[in-house]
Amino acid sequence: MNKFFIKETIKEALYSYKINEIPVGCIITKNDTIIARGHNLKEQTNISTNHAEIICINNACSYLKSWKLNSLSMYVSLEPCIMCAGAIFESRIQNLYIGTSNPFNGFFSCNYHKPNLNLNITWLNNKTCELLINKFFKKLRKGHE
């Protein structure tokens, strides 16, 4: 099931890529069914918190009519930043599947203390997620030369 869900996550990331957003996609599942989707829209909306994870969490909360996302799983193409990690913790998501690491501002791979929370994290090390983010930033740098 992970392969299907990461493919759906990458589809979301591609939506962001096509509109020149950092290509991050996210889905939330309940009982192996996708209940929410999100992709980065920060540049399009000029709202700094419009990260894929935040949008996806908000969509899941609306769908369930609850802020508590206990026992749900999140798939995200790029390791979450500290803001998104906080939202993941606050929403009580149980399982987090990360497509690729974020060496610049990824919360989980940084070397500072992390709280002991009931969150199972699985690193997928997905090459497509990694290639997509690298392609985006190469294109961005090329445009600024």
Automatic annotation (TrEMBL):
Q: Which domain of life is it from?
A: Bacteria
Q: What PROSITE patterns does the entry give?
A: CYT_DCMP_DEAMINASES_2 (PS51747)
Q: What are the residue boundaries of the CMP/dCMP-type deaminase domain, all occurrences included?
A: 1-110
* Positions of transmembrane segments: none
Q: Which GO terms describe its molecular function?
A: metal ion binding; tRNA-specific adenosine-34 deaminase activity
The processes (GO biological process) annotated in the record are: tRNA wobble adenosine to inosine editing
Q: What is this protein called?
A: Nucleoside deaminase
